[in-house]
Design goal:
CATH superfamily: DHBP synthase
Largest sheet: 6 strands, mixed
Distance between the termini: 47 Å
Number of strands: 11
Low-confidence stretches: none
Number of helices: 7
Oligomer: single chain
Helix content: 25-40%
Number of domains: 1
CATH topology: DHBP synthase
Structural class: alpha/beta
Strand content: 15-25%
Length: 206
Amino acid sequence: MLRLRATPAAIEQAARVILAGGVVALPTDTLYGLAADPRRADAVARVADIKERPAERAMPLIAADLEQVAACIGALPPMARALALAFWPGPLTLVLDAPPTLAPEVSGGTGRVGVRVPAHDVARALCRACGSPLTATSANISGAPASASPDEVERTLGARIDLLLDAGPTPGGAASTIVDVTGSAPRLIRAGAVPWSEVLACVDRG
């Protein structure tokens, strides 16, 4: 495993690794995650193997911005767009219909995918360098605590991943709130950093 401080040059190198099918540990606005190209079934399978998790579990994605989500996942319905404009960049994951360009394993067989724009410059820059949203499942063995420390990521996963982008400790805190916006009304999948009451209030204003 290569460990690099998260400079612009390192981000470009990490993007090349990902586009070649590799797996990179990256910082986000909550914890460290595992980034791979969600369009490549082999890369997604590697992430599942690294985490020792069932392949049928869906993997969340992160993106550079709202425009990248629209270009790669699809145009957001009005309710989803209102929530994205209100809470992105930030810890709100929106569950959308998955396009056929994504590896089926990303959606865990549900036909849907969760995506958000994180409030972390390095994470967004890596998505931008790859030209695509990336997987961002937590950088840990399934069932073990997720980590905000690059040292801990190296200790537990260093032999399994290709590159670690080190931006120092991440803020940690609550996981993102996950909201399904594929129907006519929002549906809470997982409570998290964004209060459900704020999500509902945003939808009501829209």
